[in-house]
Amino acid sequence: MVSATTQQRLAACMTALRSQIAQHPDGRCRTPRFDQQLFTTTGTRLADYLLEIERNLELFGRCQNAQERLWLADRLLNQIAALQREASSQQLRPRREQPAASPRQQKLEEYREYERRLKAMIDQREQRLARAESLAVQQQLKQDLEVLEGRLARCRQAIAAVEWALSLRGDVR
Known about the structure:
Distance between the termini: 42 Å
Largest sheet: none
Order of helices and strands: HHHHH
Oligomer: single chain
């Protein structure tokens, strides 16, 4: 009876942990996140550690020896607590310690930054066009706007292409 409630509580903690980890982009870090005594996994993603916890929970459910169950329960609690702390501290990590995004994710962020800058340039040209007094300046600004809008259209096409590629892999944030 006690082991059934323990297993149910651990399963509930795992469910909460899965949803907490799902909220974070899960790229790779340069080094493992935890000590080898806590996790035997050598991966650097939160999902790698979550898989080890799930395996240990499954092993806990099959274990018959009371002493081994007690040791596994303690280990599972320590692993879950450590992974919860790590998942909740992702926003606090300095940029260099955060998981590296995939090359496609980096490209998408780069294209979005280009899009933002192009929009700002278009807004600036439109404001200047509204204040322009001479015909030559107005024509030049209209020509600039056409060029910038063409660039913005190509940029949005590139963003759509990268998002499509990421959606095929299931990587879209």
